[in-house]
Structures are given as C-alpha cells and as structure tokens.
Amino acid sequence: MKANKPxxxxxxxxxxNFRVEATLPDTKVIRTSFMVNIAAVALVxxxxxxxxxxxxxxxxxxxxxxxxxxxxxxxTPAYTKAVKLQKxxxxxxxxxxxxxxxxxxxxxxxxxxxxxxxxxxxxxxxxSAEFGGQGVKLRGSIExxxxxxxxxxxxxxxxLKADPLFSAQMQSVMLNSIxxxxxxxxxxxxxxxxxxxxx
Length: 199
Hints:
Layout: H1 32-104, H2 109-119, E1 124-131, E2 135-143, H3 146-162, H4 164-169, E3 170-180, E4 186-195
C-alpha cells in the first residue's frame, strides 16, 4: 500500500463554486424561513384575537338582551295595568262629554218626550229613546204588513221634520233602518235625530 496515493472519493475545494447557488452558504441577516414563521404566528394570533373579541361582543350583546328581557318581564304588569286604566279613562271621558253635551244643550228631555208622544202615529210604538251628545235615537215597532209599516215609518219621519219643536232643535231626522221582526207581525225601526251644532 502506498502512503502517498490520493483518495479518489475525496474532493478538496479550497473555495466554493459561486456558479452553483445551492452549494453557497445562507449569508442573510434574517432567514426567510424565520420571517415566514413570524408572519404565520402573527396571522394566527390576529385571528385568535379577532375571534376572542367577537365572542366577547356576542356575550355582551346576549347579556344586554337578557337584561332588556328581564326589564320587559318586570314592567309588563305595570304596562298592562296602565293600558287598562287608559281605556277606562277614555270610556269615562267619552261618557262625561256626552253627559255634559246633553246637560248644556238647549234641550229639555221631558218636553221632547211629551211632544214625541203627541206626534206618535197610530199602530206605532216607541220602545226606547237613547239620548246622547249628538242627539236622540228612537227605536220602536209598527204593527201591520211590510209595505204599510214602511209607509207609516216614512210618514212619521216627515212629520218629525215638520214639527216646529223638533225642527227648531234638530238639524236632521232620518230613518236609519226598518226590518221585519222575528214574530212576523210587526216591523222594527230606528230613527236618528241629530241636534243642531253636532257633527
């Protein structure tokens, strides 16, 4: 064996081959892989922070909704009571206005009823007289067949319009309805008399 025989497998280069970039050492101050890792970690952290923020906002919104629901539940009985009181007050106010209009109007119920009895035709009956702030609604019945009863009701309306007492107080007198009664022996009617100055 010769001691000075060169090893054929050993390649001794005294400087790198600059033409082969793969063999060159990485001389960058900050490696590319490090920057990629930093960017990936930053992206993951930003995503996590965004997710946590959104979860906190959602939890806050849910807590606020729950608080509002609790307030609504707590105030519902008081609100229902207030609505009922408002309806009762409106109904009482309407009734008081009707009474006030009836009392302050130049209208005497006893005189009106007396004159109504005088003008009432034969076979005609007044069942009720409803007084209100707007005027009077007369409900009654007429004995006889339909055609005759209709003629009597129409003539009675014309008589009320022509009456001096009623014409001085009423702006209109009209027959609202006339229908056959279930007994089939009479017709029921409704006459509305509006006071002057009412709408």
